[in-house]
Amino acid sequence: MEKSFSRSSRIAQELQKHIAIIIQYFLKDPRFKTIITVSEVVVSKDLSYAQVFVSFLEKNHNLSIKKLLNLLNKASGYIRKLLCKKLKLRIIPNIVFYYDDSFSKGNKISLLLNKLIKKNNVI
Length: 123
Hints:
single chain; alpha+beta; GMP Synthetase, Chain A, domain 3; three-stranded mixed β-sheet; 4 helices; globular
């Protein structure tokens, strides 16, 4: 009988929760003036690597997305150290941050659909 959730997906969910808390409360870098949201974590089958997809609420910050991702990737060792204290795993995966632009794409599609509805008077 196959399990409904694999071990890697359960670990990915726990990593997502803990990484979001660590970014919000423990990263004290003043360059992070934007809100960072962890949207998804994908863990490799051998649990040695984790791809962390983040999005930014862009409000009056001077750093580009590329620079913010670079800062997060430089802080991944510190985040991994804090994860070692929070999670009881034999192997804490190496973390690599990626930008997730699905929210902005979804917002653009929603705006286009709203314009079409208003143009055609379809409710």
